Amino acid sequence: MIEAHRKESALRQQGTNRFAQKLADYSIALRRGPTEILQVNVGKLCNLTCVHCHVNAGPKRKEIMSRETINRIIGWFGKTDIPTVDLTGGAPEMIPDFRYFIEQVRSLQPTRHVIDRCNLTILLERGYEDLAPFLARNKVEIIASMPCYSPENVNAQRGEDVFEGSIAALQLLNSLGYGIDAHLPLHLVYNPVGAFLPPSQAELETDYKRELQKHFGIVFNKLYTLTNLPIGRFASYLRRNNKLNEYMELLVQAFNAATINGLMCRNTLSVGWRGEVYDCDFNQQLGMQWNNGARVFLWDVDPANTENREIMTGDHCFGCTAGAGSSCGGAIV
Predict the structure, then answer these.
(1) What is the pLDDT of residues 179-195, one digit of tens each?
(2) Domain count of the chain?
(3) What is the 3-class SS of 41-76, one letter each residue?
């Protein structure tokens, strides 16, 4: 009786969703640990319009982080011992103060680390010719979208000629030492091109390294496999093809409790382009804000009060716990 009451209480707190029920079934309390990464979505402006994009980013989006917001984030971040800022978008490089943001983080302490989640093609756009050298000078880690090592799959998911541009950008990064110099890590990201789970990350990394080296002379450090979550543009794609329910069931049936401890929502704090705080970037795109939907800004949060906070969940969370799991750092188990 006590156990049943505990599960019922957990469900009330989490809301009536299947993922909360699954956690209760396994007697799991999903709570935040110490924050190790501050992930900042600086806006939805992007030079690409990818089929799998959960942000619905594109060239016409107007959401862009202001310098005032950046300064407030830097002020908060500087008072913490969080080691890493992870910049994402959209194409984060397209906001006017992208370089300013990185310079401000790097000025805090030499040990502070910056990640740029890059779509590669932005490095070749007019007006961004100095971007790759800037990233190298500031020792910015690059995590780059590369859904396949063949042009057919990449162009189908991301747009015509994107594969060719991505290859040229990777060759440029290699020429600057990325993927070669220990201070310039270069990682690639694989997303499935359809309604299925990623294959083995280790095996696919071997394939990527072999094919990219053989055909283009490209080297990189790690491959991260990410599961597409049924939100945003990918959810629209699933609905158009009458696959949304089928895909959701695939994720639910593939739930793996061993992934829970490694979920990114446990060590990553997500910040929106206006400065709002979320448990993860996916919750951010769904508007799942703290305090029952009331807007909470980063600078109003006491860093000491984030640990052990209950994480907000929904059915989309099955995407991060399916199979080998999925996080910003790839497979979990």
Answers:
(1) 999 999 999 999 888 89
(2) 1
(3) ECECECCCCCCCCCCCCECCCCCECCHHHHHHHHHH
